[in-house]
Amino acid sequence: MKKIVFLTGAGMSAESGFRTFRGNNGMWEEYPVEKVASHEGWLQNPTLVTNFYNQLRKKLYAAQPNDGHKLISALERDFDVHVITQNVDNLHERAGSTHVLHLHGELTKVCSSRDQFDERYIKELSENDCEVPIGAKADDGSLLRPFIVFFGEAVPNITPAAELVAAADVLVIIGTSFNVYPAAGLIMFAQQDTPIFVIDPDDVKLPQNPNITHIQKGGSEGMRELTEILYKNI
Q1: Contacts of 218 (CB under 8 A, 6+ apart)
Q2: Of 18, 35, 232, 233, which one's alpha carbon is 20 to 30 angstroms from that of 127?
Q3: Which domain holds residue 75?
């Protein structure tokens, strides 16, 4: 069974009405990144950060997976499908994907602010209980913080992500600007002869690689075209 590895970015969720952090009408236009997505911002004003992610979490639960998410999930019937996502939403999981690796954390979870990767203190929030009270603490006594990789923090899942890309028979990149590192460098781990498909409606600055095919469409429309290609040619 061929292994298809997807790398998805903010454009993947745009059709679901879940606003992207960058680009036109991005959330950073209202909230400076250094205030709500940096360790310094957290230390300076944890109340602001907590409120920001409480608000964002409610927007996520109001959103629904789009056809692109669902088409990726449907491929699991015939392929070994793995999703590496830069997104903090859970739309891939809600669409039915079973192998999802989050590079930048998960919005639906909170954790210890002393050690955000200590699994003992990572808590999943339900749709009906997704608001973190101001001052709420983890069981280790530290403030609960969003389970998000803030800018400037290490990305611990980058190594397993690189290993997945290296093992891919097909690599598909959807809705990412190639501007966010280290995620943008993952394409370099693909084997020399691996077919790579980039789905993005915009002009994307791509590496010089004859194996790259740019499907210049949005996520859902592009996935429909890709699905046809996969079943015809691969």
Answers
A1: 11, 14, 15, 68, 199, 201
A2: 35
A3: 1-18+69-104+156-234
Q: Which of 91, 121, 148 is the last residue of a domain?
A: 148
Q: Is 104 tagged catalytic?
A: yes
pTM value is 0.91
Same domain (yes/no): 96, 112: no
pLDDT, position 158: 94
Parts of the chain with a pLDDT under 50:
22-26, 28
Q: Which of 39, 99, 104, 214 is catalytic?
A: 104
Query: Both 77 and 6 in a single domain?
Result: yes
Determine the pLDDT at residue 29. Answer: 53
